Amino acid sequence: MLAIACPGQGSQTPGFLNPWLDLPGVRGHLEQLSDRAGTDLIRHGTVSDEDTIKDTAVAQPLIVAAGIVTARLLLTDHTLTAATVLAGHSVGEITASAVAGALSEEDAVALVRVRANAMAEAAGATPTGMSAVLGGDPEEVASRLADLELTAANANGGGQVVAAGTLDQLAALADNPPAKARVIALKVAGAFHTSHMAPAVTALEQLRPLLAPADPIATLISNYDGNPVATGDGNLDSLIAQVSRPVRWDLCMESMQGMGVTGMIELSPAGTLTGLAKRGMRGTATFAVKSPEDLDAARSFIEDHTRTTDLDPSLRPEGPQ
After folding, report:
1. Catalytic residue among 193, 196, 222, 305
2. Is the model's pTM score more than 0.85?
């Protein structure tokens, strides 16, 4: 069984779109997505520097557009069935929703445009940030975060938790980390997936009436609890709420393994989620699509892990989520 993973913010690097523009149709596709995103995705993916593409308002549309472009080049109508699993990390859930047919490309880019700008604005209201906590006893890590009133904004599996909160709270964590744990400050603009992002949720709710969600044609897993979402409206509910609640990628990986996923392929800009899968989904084959040179091998990987049979009935999503 095949899983298609869509990365989140932080996966982008300067110039990563350059080789993709040599492929027929890619430039025109990116121009269309740029118009909808209200920003020059081609420029940001080719010549913009690292600081520019770290800006939340730039990074999020860029990552979603890259995944959508990769998917169009790589996937066929026969690839996406209920026996194909789609999952995205944070903003990558919007990419996954577009690939799974739960949002049109146009709606996905409109959603990420509002999301990115609203999250950037919310991040500017209070000095906040995020830090990765690597290792340590899970209970001790959770206790330390609770003592400092920090949120475990990302649970990524493999002993990696991302703490989010004010810069003072994060400084206190770095000064006195849990035993046998390392704390690494992340270069992000704010405390994403926490209550600090509540204004962004409001902005997305205002956008909702302009969107036309549809039921996914593939099995689409939610960051909230690792379970499939059954309907387009349920998925949109999850995407909006996700902005201010933690990302449980650990549960997504557990769910994929429980469904019998044998291979995970990660869309561009790839590498982060396949890296996590090597620790959290041991025994599952992985493939990171990093450049056009990977496409032929990626198609073979997809063929090797695509099943024509449907999911076991007990694993199918039932009702709104």
Report:
1. 193
2. yes
